Amino acid sequence: MSKMQDEYFPDVVGSDGRDFGKAVCIITGASKGFGRCIAKEIALLLKPGSMFFLVARSGDKLRELQAELAATRAGKAGLITRCVVADLGLKDDVDQVIREIREAASDIDINQLLLINNAASLGDVSRFAKSFTDLHEVNAYMSFNVSSALSLTASVLEVFPRRQDLRRCVVNVSSLCALQPFPSWVLYCAGKAARDMMFKVLAEEEPDLRVLSYAPGPLDTDMLLQARTESGDAGLKKSFAALHSQGKVLTCEESCSKLLKVLLEDEYPSGTHLDYHDV
Questions:
Q1: Of 22, 110, 128, 274, whose CB neighbour count within 10 A is largest?
Q2: Which DSSP symbol is given to 144?
Q3: How far apart are CA 115 and CA 27, in angstroms?
């Protein structure tokens, strides 16, 4: 067991032996930050023969992660890892992701499907809502952050249709911004709110599906650096800088441990929004 596992997973990975079984796990935005952390920790909770699809725009970083996973206990026990280099803002790239999943995994014997919709961008947070007059700019943001999450999720559920012995779980990595407006963050707030509602509808339509929107809290990532240096609202920029200077920023590992605990316990209402601080 890794040092990180000992520190953050005391009641997630323990004597009860809880895990995700033999699974197909798909993680978008897996090359860095929270997505990379999720990949490394979920790998510890998969049975041999499970298959990982790591999706991101950076092929080099994906391959680095693939090599790290191959060297772990899970990798040596038979975890199959596939890197899919794709820009999810482009239809052809979303189609490519689905094509690779269908060709490699649609016929393997699994008891769990895990889809982690983590890929997202902050957008231009230096400007206010009234400045976004360019429809192409707004559409490009929404295509990557909203439309692709719906299209990818719907397509994955087609590849792995409902069956009695298959547990299917879809996670939307959300944010406080899905619930609360932040000045100069109109794209990010609108995108996160849209995604939350999108997955609430999915949960209503598919009662056998487990759906969770998880807000991981303020994480020590490149996105937070952008937030505290580029936000157009002076008060917001000051707030994020204070969080960082006062040591109130979370590590990806801390937040990931809460997410995996919730998923393993499986007691949340499907479609709900859970924040790190609610768990």
A1: 110
A2: I
A3: 6
Percent of the chain with pLDDT strictly greater than 90 = 87
Task: Tell me the residue type at 58.
Answer: S
- 251 in Cβ contact with 218 (< 8 Å): no
Beta strand extents in the chain (DSSP E only): 23-28, 51-56, 80-85, 112-117, 167-173, 210-215, 272-275
Q: How far apart are CA 85 and CA 47, in angstroms?
A: 25
**DSSP designation for 145:** I
Banded model confidence at residue 8, pLDDT cuts 50, 70, 90: very low
Provide the CB-side half-sphere exposure for 71 (13 A, CA).
7
> What confidence category does residue 16 fall into, taking pLDDT thresholds of 50, 70 and 90?
low
pTM: 0.92
Phi, psi values for residue 89, rounded to 5°? -80, -5
- The number of CA neighbours under 13 Å toward the Cβ of 219 is 24
**Residue pLDDT, tens place only, 140-163:** 999 999 999 999 999 999 999 999
What's the token pair of residue 40? 């490394």
